[in-house]
Amino acid sequence: MQKTLQTEETGDYDALLDGLPSAPASTSRATVPPITRLDFFSLKLFADVVELRNMTKAAERNYLAASAASKRISDLEEMFSTQLLYRLARGVEPTPAGYVLYRHAQSTLGGLRQLNAELSEYAQGVRGQIRVFASLAAVIQFLPDDLAKFRESHPDVRVDLQEQSTSDTLESVTSGLADIGIVSPVVEYPDALQFWHYRATRLVLVTPAVHPLAKRKSIKFFEALEHEFVSLTNGGGWDRLVTQAANAYNQIVRTRVRVGSYDAACHMVRAKLGISIVPGEIAAGYSKSLGIKMIRLDEPWAELSLDMCVRDYKTLAVPARLFIDHLLGRKPGG
Q1: How far apart, in whole angstroms, are the C-alpha atoms of residue 140 and residue 206?
Q2: What does the pLDDT average to over 16-34?
Q3: Fewer CB within a 10 Å sphere, N or C end of the chain?
Q4: So what's the pLDDT on residue 18?
């Protein structure tokens, strides 16, 4: 015991190891640290398998045959000499060891994404690129001015902005396809993401100039449900929100026509094809030019929050962190 303590204190590790029994020849492979044979593609594949709970779907996400994906996972299990997944009839579940690997894989892959993002800035001749997915309300109302101001102080940073539904945005941020998402609580937010309040918008009911509801100053949603609606994209954030609100009254939204934007909805309302629900700032811009009427929705959900989300602020590339700080009106790193 005295010799062991002494060699640890002096750092004479060779002497300490000499005192240990040699490993049997059959286990010589285990003396090679497994991490030296670990490839990042297999690590990402494993993380996708855990998130999707399905080997085939994870293989498709990574452009692999299901058999090839299964072989890679089996190789990981052999490498670490432990079972990582429970193979079930309807998918897979991580074992306790699998959860440990998944947690470290997320951390490692996050660092690699940051490395790739920062180095790619030099390869592309720009100082940074930010991928932002946002809801339609944010894209139309608030982001244009905020982006313009950010560009003034950071002219070399490229912002790739795409309009996406809240569900698609949350999935894209979770998978790393987007750096930043701007969403609304029309679906449950995943615990894996970080969120900040960005802005809020007030939804209003819009009607043609001549309509049974046109002279109303405010209205309960169930009263509007007696009339046909100009609805937005089926399954999108607007559709989810309005459908949930109608369900609360045990009613349905009677859709006459669907469109892909609030602008188009206002034009359809002017054409007397139905009534609709749009952000107040957008309705105000069209009320005079199109002659449509704005009616206050007397509903708590009409005050709609717009929230910003990321996987992990600390692991984002510097330009993305600067953009978040800019949108939140705080000092960098605040």
Answers
A1: 17
A2: 45
A3: N
A4: 46
Assess contact for 286 and 292: CB atoms under 8 A.
Answer: yes
Joined tokens for residue 95: 């074992």
Q: What angle do CA 78, 81, 82 make, to 5 degrees?
A: 105
Nearest to 75 by CA among 26, 113, 29: 29
Reported as a pLDDT band with limits 50, 70 and 90, residue 34 is low
Query: Within its chain, how far is the Cα of 66 from the centroid?
Result: 26
Residue 200 bridge partners (DSSP): 305
What residue spans of 124-193 are helical by DSSP H?
136-141, 143-153, 166-175
The model scores a pTM over 0.85: no
- 51 contacts: CB under 8 Å, gap ≥ 6: 58, 174, 175
Residues contacting residue 212 through CB under 8 Å, at least 6 positions apart? 227
In the structure encoding, which two tokens stand for residue 120, read together? 């790619």
The tokens for 56 are: 């085939």
Task: Kindly tell me if the per-residue pLDDT of 334 is higher than 80.
Answer: no
Tokens 């902005």 -> residue = 161
Q: Tokens 């494993």 label which residue?
A: 46
